[in-house]
Amino acid sequence: MPAEDTRHRFIPPGLRTLLAYRREWLVKDVVAGVVLTTLLVPQGMAYAELAGLPAITGLYTSVLCLLAYAVFGPSRILVLGPDSSLGPMIAATVLPLIASGGDSGRAVALASMLSLMVGAITVLAGVCRLGFIADLISKPTMIGYMNGLALTILIGQLPKLFGFKTDADGLIEEFGAFFRGLADGKTVPAALAVGATGIVLILVLQRRLPKVPAVLVMVVLSIAATSVFDLGGHGVSLVGELPQGFPPLTLPHVRLDDLAPLFGGALGIALVSLADTISNASAFASRTGQEVRGNEEMTAIGAANLAAGLFQGFPVSTSGSRTAVAERAGARSQLTGIVGAGLIVLMLVLLPGLFRNLPQPALAAVVITASLSLADLAGTARLWKQRRTEFLLSISAFLGVALLGVLPGIAVAVGLSILNVFRRAWWPYNTVLGRVPGLPGFHDMRSYPDAEQLPGLVIHRFDGPLFFANAKAFRNQLMRLTRDEPPPRWVLIAAEPVTDVDTTAADELEELDEALNERGISLVFAEMKDPVRSKIERYELTRTINPDHFFPTLEAAVAAFRERTGAQWTTVTAGRPPADTTGEQPPD
Its topology with respect to the membrane (predicted)? Predict the structure, then answer.
């Protein structure tokens, strides 16, 4: 290792970047930091309220996570902060633990402890190199989860958009409470006008003028409208004066019986945060030529959550939209985040009343437009066209969020992803192979039903590991393939796709070989991987399976069979259906 690398090995990644800082980056980083702040402030406040917390906590959180990631983050471009996808999860964890009517101080303490737990989990995952955990949610189930989350956020924000409040919990209850509020005449016309105009303005500007800070424009116009039209006097709720200054270092105080439900929520939030971070890091790294360092990213996310939790903050994640804004503004390093954090602190110290006239429906507009970006209806439609099984997985994850809630929904999403992996291993694709004149090698008889076969030889391919869950099905398949009269002389397994054989499968293979031998049928293998062959020998299967029945290639095995039997290639038109694998394939 070069001397410089050794000297910097124990320096956090963000500090390494700052040590190698280039002077020509400074102006671009400062400008990007100013632009980024215009998005950080309104979104931070909006997402704090989405999480059921005071708006000011979103600003505290933004400052601390930006500073922590600047020190520990390996990516020069990623931007962290309060996130629309985590807000409902935080609320689902914290709000059930506080009394009806809400104790904001207790809610902040619980959210801060939740952030500390998320930080501890993600730091531990990074130190233990558990980056693969982020892969527990497949893309189809993540699409369904995000669609359900988007709908949950949208329905939850509608009362604020229309100018009233509800105490309902859960998508269905909130949906009913919203329409009851409409029926009871609780709508505040001025609030609806502000919120609806804000949504239209953000969406139009983002589509037509993507370089214009749409959220900032909407916020400024909303504050101006409050002054011009006296929106507060027309029943529109305003953000009000924010507390001045910055909170001291605080260890959140929670009850002992709060820790278990908080930990359960922290696991789900950590998983979503890690998956979001890895996907965003990969996307932006490919555009900037940087390397994705998953374990360092997890440690950095953990550090950001720990820092936020010690200063009355709540869990954070990376933000694709804020990162894109920073990138378009010319950000070159983590100094962009430091500039953004410094500007927010200056605002809190010098201008705490800057957003006093910001209408609450305007914040609802920010959250609703963010929720629309979470939904992926095009991806859902693509799943329907491309693979119905994964479409059903996506819909199941969506229903898990919509019907059971946000936190159970993430458990449903993870469970469905794991079950799908198990299903594919349990029922891997398998088929009978034949020879197609003019095409080298041996081919799937489902694709080539007129392929030629050798009388007395069945070539079977099993595309997966042999283990306890599918070993008996594998054995039963081969027994069915040998039922016809006259029975084949060889059953040749194209074993190249078989990546493993466990002890249960080894016992099944031994019983299968003995059963076939009693009928004069030999079990033969070709193209078996060396690690798998080593396991076969370690299991002492060669006591029953003839060691001479292992061939390096299918061609060698077929040549040996023809030499011993004199068989000639022929097209099978009767007798055993060549591509019949007994209907064991899973529906797709």
Answer: Multi-pass membrane protein
